[in-house]
Design goal:
There is one protein chain. By secondary structure, the chain is an alpha/beta fold. It is 58% helix and 11% strand. It has two domains: 2-157, NAD(P)-binding Rossmann-like Domain (Rossmann fold), CATH 3.40.50; 172-279. The chain contains 14 helices and seven strands. The longest helix has 22 residues, at 192-213. The radius of gyration is 24 Å and the shape is elongated.
Length: 281
């Protein structure tokens, strides 16, 4: 089940869905989900699937196809059953064996970060859910999302990898970027805790601005002002104290010049000097 599966089972139970059965290779995780939902803890995925009409496969991506094949071979999926996975990157081809058995197939992917089960349950309300489902399953999938107090976005099978790449950039790469900020702060003496405490209001304020105003209107800072002198001072300091992060600074700076050009098209000539500074090795 994992963190996502446990969070979905508990949240759907709280929303009034009867959870018939659960299975997890980790007994403690399975017992937790069974205890909260009243579901039967099962010793195999096949046993659990036989008891359910709406089946969620919340395994790691590399195991989805194999588990689905096992269910089909055991006769645990058939016409009238609905089989869903929760992978952001993978398509419905992983559920082909269930479809051949007559089941409807789809994917419901919560567009949210889940460091642990409790955080996952708190984060689900208000989240987007990427839906990639067969036509006959669309309305039911939307009802599941509504029960989780989220909102659906349609993602075609072909676009799943791009959709998931965007999700990784918005979440995982943001974590890596903030970690890079922490490292720069360490070079001038801030502890990890002080760095997060000092810069978090700036990060949170920027995110609020983006939510309200969009990306282009929210841009500020030296590149938006075409302040090439400040950018050069940044480059010199990064090269001296954090040389391994200098390529990242340059690449992000070049991306920022593109946003700045869209915010102020009349500044193209002045932005060219910033681009030149950022492009020099």
């Amino acid at each position: 089940m994992g963190k996502v599966g446990t969070a979905l089972a508990c949240s759907l139970h709280d929303a009034g869905y009867p959870v018939a059965a659960v299975h997890d290779v980790r007994p403690a995780a399975m017992e937790r989900a069974a205890r909260h939902t009243g579901a039967r803890p099962c010793g195999s995925a096949e046993e659990a699937a036989v008891l359910a009409d709406l089946i969620f496969l919340t395994t790691p991506d590399d195991h989805i196809e194999g588990v689905c094949r096992q269910l089909a071979a055991a006769g645990a999926v058939c016409r009238g059953k609905r089989v869903l996975h929760t992978s952001g990157a993978c398509g419905l081809d992983l559920l082909e064996t269930a479809r051949r058995c007559g089941a409807l197939t789809g994917c419901i992917h919560p567009l949210q970060s889940f460091p642990d089960v409790d955080a996952a349950r708190r984060s689900l309300p208000g989240s987007a859910f990427g839906l990639t489902v067969e036509d006959g399953l669309k309305e039911e999938a939307k009802a599941v999302v509504a029960a989780l107090r989220g909102f659906p976005i349609d993602v075609s099978d072909r676009d799943k990898p791009l959709y998931h790449a965007a999700a990784c950039m918005a979440s995982n790469y943001l974590v890596a970027l903030v970690d890079a900020v922490r490292r720069v702060c360490g070079s001038f003496g801030l502890t990890d805790a002080d760095a997060i405490r000092a810069f978090w209001p700036l990060i949170a304020g920027t995110m609020r601005n983006i939510e309200i105003r969009g990306t282009v209107a929210s841009l500020s800072g030296p590149i938006e002002r075409c302040d090439v002198g400040t950018v050069k001072r940044h480059l010199n300091a990064m090269g001296r104290c954090c040389p391994d992060l200098l390529p990242l600074y340059r690449q992000l700076g070049l991306l920022t010049t593109d946003v700045a050009a869209r915010k102020n098209p009349a500044a193209a000539d002045r932005l060219a000097a910033v681009v030149e500074a950022l492009s020099k090795e």
